[in-house]
Amino acid sequence: MNEEEQYLFDLRGFVVVRNALTPTQINDLSQRLEAHYANNKAAILGSDRTVLGNHASDAWSAPSLLELGGFYLDLIDLPAIKPYLTKLLGDHYRLDHDYAKIDSKMPDREKTLYLHGGGQGAGGPADLVGPSDGGQCFYRYSNGRFFNGLVAVAFELDDVQASDGGFACVPGSHKSNIGLPNVWRHSKTQAELPDFVQRIAASAGDAIIFTEACAHGTVPWEGPPDRERRTLFYKYCPHAVAWSPCYYNANNYPDLTEEQRQLLMPPSAYGPHAATQHIWQRAQDEQLELQRLRAELAKTRTSD
């Protein structure tokens, strides 16, 4: 993360990393996403879950984009992005949750810009970043270091013009001392957008990195019918911070490297430390055992 990018992130609350993904990676990610979407019609896919889908859903963890395999695992610690995360979050951080958005496939009721986050008091009962005081979405810069709560990396799989829709934010709002006024939070059309909202154009393969303390959202999609916006969100926190109520179980992804397994650890003050790794591994093993026992019980009930 060079000096110019650091300045722009501190000034605006986001930075665009051009060509973070190669054409080969874009193709792999796209094919796996489309194959999954063909059998799963939800517009938002991933581990961004705050409610249980049904009574059979696991509460401790949630379905994840990582289950798609391939380069979805590589995105956890992508070399092109890792230096930015280290600069913004420090040496010890974790992947909190992930999801994909396909704007052209979203139902009409979701085609509204909901600006959320913004200011040192990001969060609160009326905000989408979480019904807390916003402690998980903080931002400050002190003594030559960035301090962030939840940091998002949005990987674009398609070219998105500013006039199409997609990601937008209020630059500089991550340092505001006053929460975003409610009258500016919702826009059902692009014509309704406040003039201080900046729409960010991006090309396929670009990554938009932003702090969730910056007021942001998705502009209503008005792109041509033959185009869509497919965006993969991977969101990271310092190790002692969490947004999602669900955690990853690294045992579900056998192709992970050891470093990737550490990035999937749950929040704690210790981070990826030997003092807690054995505890977390036991917790994951117990979850697998619970799943096995449930499967055996279900099989016994069926046979009876």
Written description of the protein model:
The protein is an alpha+beta fold and 304 residues long. It folds into 2 domains: 267 residues, q2cbj1_9rhob like domain (Jelly Rolls); 32 residues. The strands form 4 sheets. The chain has a 6-stranded antiparallel beta sheet. The protein is globular.
Q: Would you summarize the structure shown here?
A:
With 304 residues, the protein is of the alpha+beta class.
How many H/I helical runs?
A: 6
CATH class of the largest domain: Mainly Beta
CATH level 3 topology of the largest domain? Jelly Rolls
**What is the H/E string?**
HEHEHHEEEEEEEEEEEHH
Task: Give me the secondary-structure topology.
Elements: H1 3-12, E1 14-17, H2 23-39, E2 44-46, H3 71-74, H4 82-89, E3 93-102, E4 113-114, E5 139-142, E6 145-148, E7 151-156, E8 166-169, E9 186-187, E10 198-199, E11 207-211, E12 216-219, E13 230-238, H5 258-263, H6 274-303
Antiparallel strand pairs: 1-11, 2-3, 3-13, 4-9, 5-6, 7-11, 7-13, 8-10, 8-12
Features:
single chain, alpha+beta, 2 domains, six-stranded antiparallel sheet, 6 helices, globular
